[in-house]
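Second attempt. The first submission of L-type lectin-like domain-containing protein had a stray character pasted in from the spreadsheet, which I only caught after the job came back as garbage. Lesson logged: always re-copy from the clean sequence file. Corrected sequence (500 aa) follows.
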Amino acid sequence: MAMSIEQQHRCSLAGLCSVLILCWSLSCARAEEDKPPHRRFEYKYSFKGPYLVHADGSVPFWTHTGNAIPSADQIRITPSLKSQKGSVWTKTAPSFENWEVEVTFRVTGRGRIGADGLAIWFTSEQGLEGNVYGAADSWNGVGIFFDSFDNDAKKNNPVILIVGNNGKLVYDHQNDGASQALSSCQRDFRNKPYPVRAKITYYKKTLSVMINNGFTPDKDDYEFCAKVENMVLPQQGFFGISAATGGLADDHDVLSFLTFQLTEPGKDTPPADGEITKEEKDKYQEEFDNFQQELDKRKDEYQKDHPELKEHPVDDMFESVNERELRQIFEGQNRIHLEIKQLNRQLDMILDEQRRYVNVVSETMAKTGGGGHEDQQASQQALDALFNGQREVLKYVNEMRNSVSETFRLVSGNQNLGAGGYETTQHFNDLKEHLHVVKRDIEHLVQKNLPHEKQKCPEVTLPSCLSTTHFFVFVAVQSVLFIGYFMYRSQQEAAAKKFF
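This time the job returned cleanly.
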């Protein structure tokens, strides 16, 4: 009997140990899954300014075709001319199982509508020339398209599309690839104050696209755009960027293209691609030393020829007054944009509440329609007074909207002047005074329309009574929200005019 109890204890302890070991192994596996992948920068499949090009105009490890124009700090894929095509591609094809690219670009143009767009590629072959945003059609791989022209007239552009292809698909230009896109999102990437950034990650057969909208200088401020799961891409492929223009034109400038190889946690990091020999390292080091000596020699000669620069060093690191004012305006517009989004959500809630109150009042009037003539006459007089008060409020709101529009127009007109700081401050002070005047007038209207004697609400079968005071307060809140909307419209128009 004692042996059986001892054996039971041993069995229970063994079972407990096995459960603990299983839980520990599961927690370790979960922790391994939650760890981010190891990122290794691949310089042979990347470019970034300054000193981006060689003396002969070529980009190291990349080839460019068509109307692409490399410069010291960027590559202009296509200039803002009609019917232009250009592209840049890696000279070698990497064999990455998982990868990530970060692309920084600008799409700018003088028109409200641009064309045709820009594309980022990972394909098994270089699509040097073609009709798909300047690259070849029927590709084998994936293309991320930044389409800025609305071919199908559905008013859903600019848009970002993920389109996969096995080498047999012909891109549907007329419908903007709507039926061929695996995923998409609508984002306006044209004429932004800061460069737009796209982070494209292919990890564990899942392709995801994150976008920095170009409204903020924060490089890590990304938001989700699109995602495709269970996507099989070629094991070996070329990275590329292409762009094209049509009847309309934009400048498509790529400032940087950074490529990273991703390795899953727990796996050994693959060896560096193309390890060079010691003789080649010594040769490159000798070339670098010679280049450094030549550079120092030229610096000394330049300083001897320009002695006046020693007393007045270059202060490019300090921003000018105009640059500071533009930065402050862009940051303020970004904050206004976020506030308008919040006000828009609140406005939708208030409109729903207003519809509910209108329905309740309509049902109540319908039920009391058979009452006395005196009650109907009193209700009609109260409604007339409310409508008259609301008309006066709307009149003051329109005056304030005109004042706000005029102020934004003056600010946008004076933002490039040397004395723009004082005038901008003065306009915003005038706007503040107008807001105070409108607020005082609205309070006066509310006090004027308040009843002198406390009146009892009509006895109706309602959950609550809507008094005149509540109605005016609701009208005032709604007017403020409409003001915010008009300010947002005016700000958007002013921001659009800056780049025309």
